[in-house]
Each structure stands twice: as C-alpha cells, then as structure tokens.
Amino acid sequence: MVKKRQETIAMSDLMEHLAPIIELLDFEQVEELKYHLSIRHFKKNQIMYKEGDVPLYFHCLLSGKVKVYKDGVGGRTQIIRVIKPVEFFGYRAYFANQNYVTAAAAFESSTLCLIPMELVDKWTKTNLKLALFFVRLLSIELGSSDQRTVNLTQKHIRGRLAEALLFLKDCYGLEEDGATLSIYLSREDLANLSNMTTSNAIRTLSAFANEHIVAIDGRKIKLIDEEQIKKISKIG
User: Fold this and answer.
1) How crowded is the C-beta side of 64, counted as CA atoms within 13 Å?
2) What's the burial of 136, exposed, middle or buried (CB within 10 Å: 0-12/13-18/19+)?
3) Is residue 64 within 8 Å of residue 85, measured between CB atoms?
4) Angstrom distance (rounded) from CA 132 to CA 110
5) DSSP type of residue 47
C-alpha cells in the first residue's frame, strides 16, 4: 500500500493507473518507481505548483479535476487546459530546463501520484520507448494548444463560450442525465477558460439560457441544445 497524508491506494490499482508508463519500463525501473513515487491529496482550490517554481515531479492525476493556468496582464487569469483522470502533466518545464511558466490548482478535491523528474529523466536517457512516449505526449499537447489559441483569439464571445462548454464536455463528460456537465465551474473559472471577463461570461451564459440552449442551476450547466452550441462554436 502507498500511504501519505492519510491517503491510501492499493499498489495494484496505482500500477493500473500508471499503465501507459509502466508498460514501457523494465523490471528494475518499475521497482525503482514503486520506491520513489508518492501520493498527495489536494483540497479544492489548493495550488499544486506556482509559476516560477522549480519542476521537481511528474504529475499523474488519479482522481479529481485540475486546471493549469497563467496569470496575465492586469491580473487576468487564463486557464490553459484542464486535466482529468488519468492524465499526466507538470513535466514540460523540466525537459525545457525552465521553471514553471504556468500554475496548477485543484478544481475539486484531487489525488495525485508524484514521480521525481530526475528519475524520469534518467530513464528517458536509456529507454527509447519512454523517450518517444514523451515526444508523442508533448506533440499532442502542442497541437491541442495551437487549436485552443486560434479558438480563443479569433472567435467572438458567444463562439468562445460555446467552445468552452463543448471543451468541458469532451474533457469531463456528462452526468447520468446525459446533458449536465460533470464539472461545476465558478463563473470566474468559466470566464478564464473562455478568455473573457467574468461579467461577459455571466451575460453570455444568461443569453444562452434565455435562448433555451442551456439550463443553469447554480454552478450546474445543462446542455439543452448541443447542436446549436456546436453551430455557435463553429461560426465563432
């Protein structure tokens, strides 16, 4: 069993979560991984790392939801991407020999597996399959980032909000009713994800509700007319 801060998880379950990495390691590397990994639990809104921090760990989200964000001009925050189980993050800066240029925090209570980046770096120097794994992972993230940049800079407010709602659906899915987003964002976080002010996010979301495109219940957002949301996102 791996235990830290009263957070316990069976090693067999942990190895299953880390399967994309485990299957690329040899026996000695797997044993080394088991010895050095740690489990940490983060409360809602708790920061995992800050901009400017030295990257020490490879992060794997085991449960919960995480936002990766950057503070911009005038105190405006931009959510760069969101993380869902079981995804990896927080390693790019180490490979780039940089400190973190973004920050990460928990949307809700979240559990992470942390692996020392020095260990990962050592493995990639002798394990070609693992090195290629990170090349592919970074390439996929770069492609997604490029697409998000275009969406956030070229679309109008309605298009950006529609795109954000579809983005959240793709990332976190829907609840049992098949329509309610399985994540409850504050209006500020929704604005930061959509590259707009909080007041604009509130007004645009209210307009969507008045048009019966979505239904709002506190932080719950129900997608009433997904096809219309897709149309608004496409038109921009």
Assistant:
1) 23
2) exposed
3) yes
4) 28
5) E
The Cα–Cα gap between 101 and 95 comes to 13
Q: Which residue has the tokens 């390691």?
A: 25
Tokens (6 digits) for 47: 């920061």
Whether residue 67 contacts residue 14, with contact meaning beta carbons closer than 8 Å, is answered with no
The pTM of this model reads: 0.85
pLDDT in tens, 49-76: 999 999 999 999 999 999 999 987 777 8
Query: To the nearest 5 percent, what fractions of the chain are helix, strand and coil?
Result: 45, 25, 30
Here the contacts of 76-80 (C-beta below 8 Å, separation 24 or greater) are 76/192, 77/192, 78/152, 78/192, 78/195, 79/189, 79/192, 79/193, 80/145, 80/148
Cα 222 to Cα 236: distance, rounded to the nearest angstrom? 21
DSSP per residue over 61-113, as a string? EEES-EEEEEE-GGG-EEEEEEE-TT-EES-HHHHTT---SSEEEESSSEEEE
Closest of 84, 76, 77 to residue 107, by C-alpha: 84
